[in-house]
């Protein structure tokens, strides 16, 4: 395979094969695990945000195997799969095999955040492999465990809001409120239930900006959904699907970055939109200068940023790139308070946007191209020293109607929303055609069109 797919890294693990008489057969080996990645993905990762999400999903073919994958994200929130593996079980040995190769071939930087669920095998593999990455957990998986143990959806909503909270003092207030609600109604307190989980592993206010606002493993689960239609096919087809999808994705995304640069833009669209909104909010803020070097400011809101709460003041420290609202250090681009402070003293606020959000950086992610493979009929397969056979112990029962292996839990249940909102008056409970103010709006639009 390496001869026909240049730059491809494939690590294959096999096991000895014993015949029916329990005699070792040297001419055969049992397929055990396989890891692969592509050179364009390896060259792209250093220009992505410094975090990676990992997860596993079942394959539905003749044999019960699991596809592990790791994904990264560019500055415009585009997803890039960077490594894959097929293993027999989602245990510590399989995850250690995947993480060790991920570290060896793809991620050389130590200052990386890895986002995952709290699978025992994965956690044990991270500890045992000695990978010096910051391990944090997906809040959806923790919330699913919470509702399983406490069976209270209101407490679960409070818990998720606490996890997403950015300001530490509000985090502590919300924690106290939740503990007060749970007091006397459970055998295990909330802090005892959290056990050995450190606050920075689940709460955004203690994260120090490692996760770039990513609280879930939704990115890698989205890749699993893309590969859904290939997960019942042979391993070679799964490999080919990852190659061809990435080979066509790279030039398409690269052309988008070039078009944006030629249009005169510097930053990605997501950041441009966020900065427009922040500039709009900054106009209603008052700024006081607290440093003659123009480094620290006190920014006071005239309109409350949070619904139901009065306006507040925030300390902005440009030298250390900090704001008391913590959006600046969490998302790595200026919040509205920083924008207001820079406008006060005529500083260019764009200098405080991290380089990962520039189009030149995202172009380096997507400029790497895959080679065009020769037709399969032209491949000259070299002779092999052994025959690779499947593990018959993993074979599914072929009899009867296929059964779903998907175990559904609380994560599959959608949260209740406020219902449909009217497109005219923006109130819940009805739509445009049944709006009580429909005649008024229609009359207004008619008069406007006549004028």
From TrEMBL:
Keyword Phosphoprotein annotated: no
Organism: Gossypium arboreum (Tree cotton)
Entries under Pfam families matching the protein: MULE, SWIM
Superkingdom to which the source organism belongs: Eukaryota
Location of the SWIM-type domain: 314-346
Record-given protein name: SWIM-type domain-containing protein
Phylogenetic lineage: Eukaryota, Viridiplantae, Streptophyta, Embryophyta, Tracheophyta
Keywords of the record: Metal-binding, Zinc, Zinc-finger
């Amino acid at each position: 395979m390496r001869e026909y797919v240049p730059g491809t890294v494939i690590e294959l693990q096999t096991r000895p094969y014993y015949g029916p008489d329990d005699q070792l057969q040297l001419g055969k080996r049992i397929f055990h695990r396989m890891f692969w990645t592509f050179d364009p993905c390896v060259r792209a990762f250093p220009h992505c945000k410094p975090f990676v999400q990992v997860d596993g999903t079942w394959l539905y073919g003749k044999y019960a195997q699991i596809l592990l994958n790791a994904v990264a994200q560019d500055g415009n929130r585009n997803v890039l799969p960077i490594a894959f593996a097929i293993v027999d079980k989602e245990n510590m040995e399989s995850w250690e095999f995947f993480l060790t190769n991920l570290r060896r071939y793809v991620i050389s930087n130590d200052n990386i955040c890895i986002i995952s669920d709290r699978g025992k095998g994965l956690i044990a593999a991270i500890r045992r492999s000695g990978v010096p990455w910051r391990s944090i957990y997906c809040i959806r998986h923790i919330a699913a465990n919470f509702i399983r143990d406490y069976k209270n959806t209101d407490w679960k909503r409070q818990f998720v809001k606490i996890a997403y909270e950015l300001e530490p003092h509000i985090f502590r207030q919300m924690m106290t409120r939740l503990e007060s609600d749970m007091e006397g109604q459970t055998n295990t307190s909330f802090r005892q239930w959290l056990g050995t989980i450190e606050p920075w592993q689940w709460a955004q206010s203690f994260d120090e900006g490692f996760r770039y606002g990513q609280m879930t493993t939704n990115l890698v689960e989205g890749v699993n959904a893309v590969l859904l239609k290939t997960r019942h096919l042979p391993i070679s087809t799964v490999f080919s699907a990852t190659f061809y999808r990435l080979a066509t994705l790279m030039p398409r995304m690269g052309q988008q970055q070039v078009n944006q640069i030629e249009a005169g833009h510097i930053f990605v669209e997501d950041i441009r939109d966020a900065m427009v909104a922040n500039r709009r909010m900054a106009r209603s803020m008052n700024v006081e200068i607290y440093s003659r070097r123009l480094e620290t400011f006190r920014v006071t809101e005239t309109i409350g940023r949070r619904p139901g709460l009065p306006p507040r003041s925030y300390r902005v420290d440009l030298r250390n790139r900090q704001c008391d609202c913590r959006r600046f250090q969490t998302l790595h681009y200026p919040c509205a308070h920083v924008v207001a402070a820079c406008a006060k003293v005529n500083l260019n606020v764009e200098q405080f946007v991290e380089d990962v959000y520039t189009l030149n950086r995202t172009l380096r992610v997507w400029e790497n191209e895959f080679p065009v493979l020769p037709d399969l009929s032209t491949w000259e397969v070299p002779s092999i020293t052994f025959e690779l056979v499947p593990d018959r112990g993993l074979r599914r029962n072929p009899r009867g109607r296929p059964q779903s292996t998907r175990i559904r839990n609380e994560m599959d249940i959608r949260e209740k929303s406020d219902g449909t909102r009217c497109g005219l008056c923006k109130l819940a409970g009805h739509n445009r055609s049944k709006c009580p103010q429909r005649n008024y709006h229609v009359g207004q639009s008619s008069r406007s069109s006549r004028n």
